[in-house]
């Protein structure tokens, strides 16, 4: 069954000192448009993550986010004791050699020095942590795919309803078609007979009528449209990745409906064609969301 390009998936991994959050959102797009926001510690895995997303998701505007929530102990910025000690020794040496008074408030001076307050967010990623984080990424992808399938089922149901409506409208053309041909014959014949001064060859008139009626014949268009309707339903059942193909079929359906309208030459048929176009327009709008 078809899948929608609209989806959402999230997974959370809780470790001893942190919580890893993975979130994926997707909307419709002609191709795969992938953007990522990844915590610094995991940026080395960005290409691997991108390749996995591209392989599974195929199409859509996809936003991938991976961020880390640290524990309370990690929120406090640590003081780099080694750097403080180094600055203290250097200031003391300068005070002795240059005969400059020592600071009255050592902490105020030292804590202003560069790199004393440090917070190293980039830590080396272990294989064990990556294995667990990778499982969280896979879980988020699974949730997004499940969401897409659910949306795809809703789209398939709507498409089936619209196709059934167009098919019913197509079946309603037949009674008006025979009436239309007879009206054309009658209108042309009456017009000629009302013109008393015109003498015409009835055999030639019959030949011209046949030629004219053949040009207005819509049997081929009806058959092609019926075939496109069946093809659309069959394509939906072929599985995911059929969005572009369904779009092409919808375009072909539109061509046949337009030709029916141009050949109809009948008010009732024109109404039916307008209703068909309305149903098809709703299909075209939603088919843009199909992967």
Topology of helices and strands:
Blueprint: E1 7-14, E2 18-27, E3 32-38, H1 46-57, E4 60-70, H2 72-75, H3 81-98, H4 106-110, H5 127-171, H6 173-194, H7 202-215, H8 219-236, H9 243-264, H10 267-287
Helix pairs in contact: 5-8, 5-10, 8-9, 9-10
Tally the helices. 10
Number of domains: 3
The separation of the N and C termini measures 11 Å
Structural class: alpha+beta
Strand order of the largest sheet: 1-2-4-3
**Percent in helix:** 55-70%
Radius of gyration, whole Å: 37 Å
- Please count the beta strands (DSSP E, at least 2 residues each): 4
Outline of the structure:
62% of the residues lie in helices and 12% in strands. It has 10 helices and 4 strands, in the order E-E-E-H-E-H-H-H-H-H-H-H-H-H.
Provide structural commentary:
The chain is an alpha+beta fold. It folds into 3 domains: 7-74 and 131-148, Ribosomal Protein S5, domain 2; 78-110, no CATH class; 150-287, no CATH class. The chain is 62% helix and 12% strand. The protein contains 10 helices and 4 strands; from the N terminus they run βββαβααααααααα. It has helices at residues 46-57, 72-75, 81-98, 106-110, 127-171, 173-194, 202-215, 219-236, 243-264, 267-287, and strands at residues 7-14, 18-27, 32-38, 60-70. Strands 1-2-4-3 form a 4-stranded mixed β-sheet. α1 links the parallel β3 and β4. α8 runs antiparallel to α9 and α9 packs antiparallel against α10 (267-287). The longest helix has 45 residues, at 127-171. The model has no long low-confidence stretch (mean pLDDT 85). Keywords: Endonuclease, Hydrolase, Nuclease. Its cofactor is a divalent metal cation. Belongs to the YicC/YloC family. Pfam families: YicC-like_C, YicC-like_N. This is TIGR00255 family protein.
């Amino acid at each position: 069954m078809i899948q929608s390009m609209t989806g959402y998936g999230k997974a959370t991994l809780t470790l001893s000192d942190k919580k890893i959050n993975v979130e994926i959102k997707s909307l419709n797009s002609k191709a795969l448009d992938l953007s990522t926001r990844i915590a610094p510690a995991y940026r080395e895995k960005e290409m691997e993550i991108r390749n996995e997303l591209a392989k599974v998701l195929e199409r859509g505007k996809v936003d991938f986010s991976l961020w880390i929530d640290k524990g309370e102990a990690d929120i406090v910025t640590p003081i780099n004791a080694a750097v403080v000690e180094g600055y203290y020794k250097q200031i003391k040496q300068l005070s002795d050699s240059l005969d400059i008074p020592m600071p009255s408030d050592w902490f105020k001076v030292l804590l202003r020095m560069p790199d004393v307050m440090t917070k190293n967010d980039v830590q080396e990623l272990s294989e064990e942590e990556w294995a667990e984080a990778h499982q969280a990424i896979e879980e988020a992808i699974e949730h997004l795919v499940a969401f897409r399938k659910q949306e795809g089922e809703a789209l398939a149901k709507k498409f089936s309803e619209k196709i059934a409506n167009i098919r019913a409208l197509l079946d309603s053309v037949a009674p008006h078609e025979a009436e239309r041909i007879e009206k054309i014959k009658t209108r042309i014949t009456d017009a000629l007979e009302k013109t008393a001064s015109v003498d015409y060859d009835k055999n030639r008139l019959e030949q011209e009528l046949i030629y004219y009626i053949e040009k207005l014949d819509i049997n081929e268009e009806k058959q092609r449209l019926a075939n496109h309707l069946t093809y659309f339903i069959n394509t939906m059942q072929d599985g995911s990745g059929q969005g572009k193909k369904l779009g092409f079929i919808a375009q072909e359906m539109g061509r046949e409906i337009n030709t029916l309208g141009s050949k109809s030459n009948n008010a009732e048929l024109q109404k039916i064609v307008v209703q068909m176009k309305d149903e098809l327009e709703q299909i075209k709008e939603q088919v843009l969301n199909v992967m």
